[in-house]
Fold each of these.
Amino acid sequence: LVLMKTLASQLSEDVREMSSAQRQNLHVAAVFACNFTNSLYAMAQEILAYDHIDKDILQALIEETAAKLRGHDAKDVQTGPAVRMDRNVIDKHIAWLQAHGQADKARLYEEMSRIIYERSQQS
């Protein structure tokens, strides 16, 4: 165990001991935070590509969003039409997606908006 900690410390400054249950919990959380998020970035790039908008236009916003998380709970820094349940904006976005053959993204948009709103209402 000491050898493993020494080796791990050479690879990363953030080395932590965890039980198997904690590692599984971390993996589930990482899939939400990284894998699902990356898939959403890919969908955003597809949406931008429809009107030939450079995908890099989102980079600053992505970095700003990540920076807001430092020292804050994600729930506390959530912004956007879903938090306000701004149906006017949400419905326009969903209509755009549907009109452009993106029914899967429209369903995901609706569900994510519902989840974001419900979570924003919890204390």
Note: The chain has six helices and no strands.
Amino acid sequence: MPPIVQNLNNAADGDVQRIIFNSKGTKMMQINPLGFMCEYDFDRCTAAITNPHLIFPEQTSNYNRLFWSGAYSPNDSLFYISTNRFFGIDTSYLFQFDLTAANIPLSCDTLYQFVQPVQAGTIRLAPDNKLYMTCFYDWGFPGFPYPDSVRNMYNENLSVVNYPDSLGAACDFQPFSFYLGGKRTYWGLPNNPDYNLGAVVGSPCDTLSVGIAETETTSKASLHVFYNAAAEKLFINAQNFKGKYCTLQIFDVMGRKVFSSRKKIQPHYFTHDINCAALAKGMYIINLQTEKENLSKKFIKE
């Protein structure tokens, strides 16, 4: 099949040209560091890109929309943009736009500003329906890689939008709140396609067959925990987890329940963090249970 070539617009390269798809794969947003922002309809079957809705044209001077990365909210009603610092500007931002507003540019809400040497990085929607964002800590030339001595709250944590379908402060943006266990961030995040998007009902491009029976592969569920002693926070992640709802419980070594919470699971993934400041020092058992799975791990609060 020959490639499909379309001429969309005259947006300049500006070193970075981003395209971001919504959760249904029906819309495509294009942004760049020269302030360009335009949303299109996207046909997953034909790959046709149509109906451009220009939100911001490119700026030619007085640059103040240095768009770096973007992400749709899970229900596709909001769009988040992180900016970067070019042209001598020492501040970068996280913006939220209401795509249902009559005037989208006027709906812009500044959720956070990052001041040099901290620079906003990439923002992405995760399987748990939260948005995660990186930051780069500008320690000096050449920037990459970090020396081992450059470790701080800015480059050892991700920032999180906990409720990205909610407007303004209700989205609960928590900067530098997801500890990476000693790993460090730069500007980027993995660009992972959504392989669970599903078929378009009635679409001819989902009726293809090569005559080979598909073999279902299953992966064993796994539970990972990490306790950050400095922040007194416990980070819990489960993968390949089956079920719709789970009960998360923590027990002390005497079998006493010290924490319990019921949560909804996004297919095959679960992530949660718990403030452990009120827990006494000692060993604890974490139990994560659904109607199909039961996983346990230990952690020690020192």
Note: Residues 207-217 have pLDDT under 50 and may be disordered.
Amino acid sequence: NKQSFVDDQFPPSSRSLGAGSFNQCSQWLRISEVTPLSHDDRKLPWTIFSSPKPSDIQQGALGNCWLIAALALISEQPRLLE
């Protein structure tokens, strides 16, 4: 069975984003669906951490400033990322 896992407590829907309504439409992607923009970039290894900076992080519509603050702090501590 090659069916992808879906968490019952966190389904890919606006319900998982919180009680407020969001005017912007989001597209839910699995990590396997996220690919480099150009064909040349496909030769590079995919990585999450590549010299992250606090300015790389932006708060969106979720109201998750507590998470953004934590990510900004961690980005300044390379040993925590490792």
Note: The chain has a mean pLDDT of 72.
Amino acid sequence: MGKNRIENLYTLSNSEKELLKLPESKKKDSWDTHTFQDLKKNLKSHLYVEQENLCVYCKQELSKETRLTHIEHVIARDNNEKFCFALKNLALSCRDCNSAKSAKYVYHNERTEKSLSRYPHRSVRFLIPHPHYDNFDEHVSFFLDFYPIEVNQSSKGIKLIEICNLRRFGLMANKITAEFKNSAGGMEEKIYKLSAKSPEEALAGIDEIIAELL
């Protein structure tokens, strides 16, 4: 499942430190400008290694395609732009987790999340496992390596599964296929056929597959 959390922050070069002193680094609209392009590229390379090439939320293998792998803001840019380039606020996620989480609030209070002036240094007030502070496997585990469940009724685990829609069909189908690609019993064919079903029928089909494996 990869590392439990991001242990090593990216080390900024002197020129990158100067960049982050610019007022623009605290503005959400600056994220996609050319000014910070090289910094983002270097940060992404570091996080690929640090996260062992896995999405920080769903633990699915990350794609090397830029459009499919995102630098994720734990506290969303839309909610507090001051942390746009705060290193502890950044991690790599797959496109689907990034899209599902979007600008949902992850701090204990929406108003507080918007008004924070300094980045929190502890995990206690975050509603989800923080990529830099929390051990992931204390909050979420993957039953049979693909079905996400909260560990010991962890409130953070429950919230992460909800916010990132970790029980989405596509994610589970990909994990099942990878796990049982060469197994007997036509498992891969069954999974393939589910892709043509409605979401409700697909989830029911996944339940049947789980029952077969138990």
Note: The mean pLDDT is 87.
